[in-house]
Amino acid sequence: MILQAVTPVMAGFPSPARDEPFLPLDVEQLLVEHPETTFFWRVEGYSMEGLRIYHGDFLVVDRAIPPSHGRIVIAVLEGGFVVKQLLYDPNGVILRSGHSDYPDIRVTQEQDLVIWGVVRWALHRMAYPTSR
After folding, report:
1. CATH code of the domain in which 81 resides
2. Among the options 15, 84, 100, 131, which is catalytic?
3. Is position 19 within any domain?
4. Residues 16-48 pLDDT 10s
5. pLDDT by residue (tens digit) across 52-83?
6. Domain region containing 83
7. Could you give the CA distance from residue 47 to residue 54 in angstroms, rounded to a whole number?
8. Is residue 50 a contact partner of residue 98, using CB atoms and an 8 Å limit?
């Protein structure tokens, strides 16, 4: 999908205007590194809010990227899909939530765990305060 995009915009002090502020932007090229192994998931729930992943967000997940400590992943635990932060410690694997109301999941050797893919992007709509 090709969209019109503005050239970089300063978040601090304004910069002088450019002659052509709009350039073509290929959203797929921006978000997808490996098209054949990239999938989009929609988030349901609130356990990852502390890591800026919100209910209703779309996640861009790449199965070609190796999972590593600290990455946000889609995991299949006991047949169910979850989005969590992957942590390794001397005792094994922890799937960490991003919200204090949701406990970490310490994966035991008896549990069936598959790391399905690594989250590359979380896309969400901007929230604005309601009028007074």
Report:
1. 2.10.109.10
2. 84
3. no
4. 655 556 667 788 888 999 999 999 999 999 999
5. 999 999 999 999 999 999 999 999 999 999 99
6. 33-123
7. 8
8. yes
Catalytic-residue membership of 84: yes
Residue 9 is assigned to a structural domain of this protein: no
**Any domain includes 44:** yes
Q: Residue 110 has what pLDDT?
A: 93
For 44-100, list the strands marked E by DSSP: 58-62, 72-77, 80-89, 92-96
Taking all residues of the chain, what is their mean pLDDT, rounded to a whole number? 88
6 located within any domain: no
Catalytic residue among 47, 68, 100, 131: 47
Instruction: Look up 47 and say whether it is catalytic.
Output: yes
CB-based contact 117:62 (threshold 8 Å): yes
The pLDDT of residue 99 is: 94
As for how many domains the chain has, the answer is: 1
**CA angle, 91 then 97 then 98, to 5°:** 130
pTM (2 d.p.): 0.80
As beta bridge partners, residue 2 has 26
